[in-house]
């Protein structure tokens, strides 16, 4: 439509697919041509019931909606319920997933990051407390390290992993080679790494939208040009695209 602020822009969203993605919806509503081409897929991991045993009053922290979904399956298999636990989520979407899974209130920060979690009052005085962090394999260690430094006994429950999704690789290469304004969206360092792995030689000369400076540093190290949003919230990511694209037009 005439007047759409992102008309003429193509956007490649490269994270694991999710139904009703608000970022894709917002970008399309602003006139962008959006392609969801996940370079990674999510696989569940088997969890030893002993990992969840003996922590009746533990603090549970879920770092993503995938952690809630696959964590719920692991907890059901172990016969564990939410009663007696304090539940924390990395952001509002993850908290909503926890509410849908258990009908509980999950405390969450406005800023959907580990740093935001660590500023919550309930996670400041945790000396002697048991904390279980539900996450994917190979995630950041900053949250565990900070809570351990505050005196908590922290352990991970890794309930999923990200693995390459090769079926979209050629399509992504083809889209990157097409002429015209383009931005790729990488929500995590793992997606950045998967994008860079498509190329044996020089990195693609397109901006890569990332959530925050940590992922931006990974992108720069990979030879990519990061376009930095404040965080991974759909509204912040969309605004970063709008700020970047409008002057270019």
Beta-strand fraction estimate = 15-25%
Shape category? elongated
Order of helices and strands: EHEEHEHEHHEHEHEHEHEH
Number of strands: 10
Low-confidence stretches: none
Number of helices: 10
Spatial strand order of the main sheet: 2-1-8-9-10
Average pLDDT level: 89
Q: Kindly report how far apart the N and C termini lie.
A: 16 Å
Give me the Rg, rounded. 19 Å
What share of the residues lie within helices?
A: 25-40%
Main beta-sheet strand count, sense and barrel state: 5 strands, parallel
**Class from helix and strand fractions:** alpha/beta
Structure summarized in a few sentences:
This protein has 249 residues and is an alpha/beta fold.
Can you walk me through this structure?
This protein has 249 residues and is of the alpha/beta class. It has helices spanning 22-29, 49-52, 65-77, 92-102, 114-118, 142-149, 169-177, 189-196, 213-221, 234-248, and strands spanning 10-13, 33-36, 40-44, 59-62, 86-89, 130-136, 153-164, 182-185, 207-211, 225-229. β1, α1 (22-29) and β2 form a beta-alpha-beta unit. The radius of gyration is 19 Å and the shape is elongated. The two termini are 16 Å apart.
Descriptors:
249 residues, alpha/beta, 5-stranded parallel sheet, 5-stranded mixed sheet, 10 helices, 10 strands, 22% strand
Topology:
Layout: E1 10-13, H1 22-29, E2 33-36, E3 40-44, H2 49-52, E4 59-62, H3 65-77, E5 86-89, H4 92-102, H5 114-118, E6 130-136, H6 142-149, E7 153-164, H7 169-177, E8 182-185, H8 189-196, E9 207-211, H9 213-221, E10 225-229, H10 234-248
Parallel strand pairs: 1-2, 1-8, 4-5, 4-6, 6-7, 8-9, 9-10
Antiparallel strand pairs: 3-7
